[in-house]
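Thread: quick sanity check before group meeting

JM: Hey all, I'm pulling together slides for Thursday and realized we never actually wrote out the predicted structure for the chain we discussed last week. Dropping the sequence here so it's in one place. If anyone has concerns about the input, flag it before I start.
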Amino acid sequence: MSGENSRAPYPAEKARQGEIILRTRTQRIIFIGGLAGMLIVGLVATFMC
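JM (edit): ok, ran it. Output follows.
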């Protein structure tokens, strides 16, 4: 276990404020479909319980 944690930690300033880049129409459709799917699953779970 001598190589464990040998890398320096990634600075928090660089890890924050990420942006989602959707370059193609297919990427946008999949992303929006995923968001809509999560919403539908949440609504179904709410009404089923």
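AS: nice. Residues 25-48 form the longest helix (24 residues). Residues 23-49 form one domain.
JM: adding both to the slides.
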